[in-house]
Amino acid sequence: MRETYQVQKEDFANAGKVSSHIKTTLKQLGVEPALLRRIAIAVYEAEINMVIHSDGGAITMEIDEGSIRFTFADQGPGIADIEAAMQPGYSTANEAAREFGFGAGMGLPNIQRNSDSFDIQSSPAGTILNLSYEVNP
Amino acid sequence: MSTVISYTLKQCTRCNKCLKQCPTSALTVKDERIVIESKRCINCGACLDACVHQGMQAKGSTLADLENYDYTVALIPTAVFGDCETPAEAATLTAAIGKLGFDEVVELSSYDGALMNALEEVLASDTGSGPLIWGFCPVVHAWIKETYPALLDRVIPFVPVSELAAADVRKRLKAKYENIGIFHLCECVSKLAMAKYPYGGKRQWQVDHALSLTDLFPQISRLQNKCEANLSLCRKGLTQAGMNLFLSEFPQYDCTGADGLVKVQRALETMEFGQLKKSRFVYLSNCLGGCVGGNLLWGNPFDKQVKIRDLCRMTHGQSAQIEASELFEEPVYEKSPPVSMAQRLKEVAEINAQLEQLPGYDCGACGYPTCRSLAEDILKNKSSLDKCRLRRRRSA
Prior knowledge:
The structure holds two protein chains of two kinds.
Chain A (H helix, E strand, L loop, with lengths): L1 E6 L9 H12 L4 H21 L3 E7 L3 E8 L7 H4 L9 H5 L7 H7 L3 E7 L2 E9 L3
Antiparallel strand pairs in A: 1-2, 2-3, 3-5, 4-5
Helix pairs in contact in A: 1-2, 2-5
Chain B lengths: L4 E3 L9 H5 L5 E4 L2 E4 L9 H5 L5 E3 L12 E6 L10 H12 L5 E4 L1 H17 L6 E3 L3 H10 L7 E2 L4 H13 L6 E7 L2 H8 L12 E4 H12 L10 H4 L4 H6 L6 E5 L1 H12 L8 E5 L15 H13 L10 H4 L13 H15 L15 H9 L9 H7 L1
Parallel strand pairs in B: 5-6, 5-9, 7-8, 7-12, 9-10, 11-12
Antiparallel strand pairs in B: 1-4, 2-3
Helix pairs in contact in B: 3-8, 14-15
């Protein structure tokens, strides 16, 4: 199964809808609760990051009998200092995002904690975040 | 959870209001009758409210069952006192219930008080991730089990208050009577269901019968003016019956609450994303305003929250003394047999392929609550694509 969803820049009103759709799909697939929770948390945080910080992009979900994988690919402007962004509490969120209750600066570390494998590459042209989870085949 | 709701009309007008209100898609219309899928039903009672022809009913036991016992005890839920303005009124209400034919009446506020005290200890020592959930509402409990199982480990596994009281009563009376009948008078549909179909736990179930308070109301009302009695309600226990009152009991903890299906759903969805980061505890109740809004009670939940707050200021009873080990139970949840991801992917792909043939409006005209549920039954050869009215119209 492979599905791709678009995410718009600063579309706070719809932030989280892709994650909800993904969560519903995973429930239909009978993904075990503890794993579902980890994926839900990671995917939600990553989607919100994309809305707040990026110029928009796409989320791709791929599922086969052994794994569940996500790719978050945006169109920039990139994360200037990934190492700093991986520290809990570090935030570059603007005022508008904070007014919506987003941008507490826990996103990336939280995503990493809730994934089996975590890989992030960033340049001014865009950031690509890959997450994957093992499932019992 | 097994359902206590049944459909009673000969023929349904097919307005589909109940289908639309059911949060777990447990209802379908087949052959002009409503069919309830017992396994999915969480006994919230939304369909009872939705049916304009009073076609849905929630039934418990009846007072006729009193005759089967040597000694009978009525358990009275705290929420019922939301109807009383003074402790004296609460006392006459309790006495009137006794006159329905019970040998003894036990009101539950002191047991609720014991659970409230235990809750405070649980909150003080919790270090888990995400807020704790108070599992007193059987609807919320069943809904989490059915739809949000990832949150189950955050539900505090308290023994239901009616069971706590029933066990205590049995212990006290067992030497004196052989055949004791314990009747739980229920303020909502889900408590009725819980007493009839226990939702887990290893204990022996202590309540024998569940009675609906709505059914008894006319009789209680007639008896109430002829009673005099004394009663000492436990203030702490009373507070759990109203959501606002309950939350104000724990100012030192970051507690929040949600009442009604829509808000409860929002809270559970948010929790599943790990987004309730500031709250350490969540009070969730299907009924508006907490148990005082019980769908088998009379009156409105708004005034009742005020009344029960006032009542709290006038009562000074003690909490029941119960061993900590008796307050909690180890929850038992049936696990469905594991199905391989490859198999699941195949099934979902088949359903999705079927879904593409359907309009996706979830209009309910076919009798199924959603296009997906129709698609699922088509694949089981229980239904067919021509059930869809929109498809029929489009191809005509």
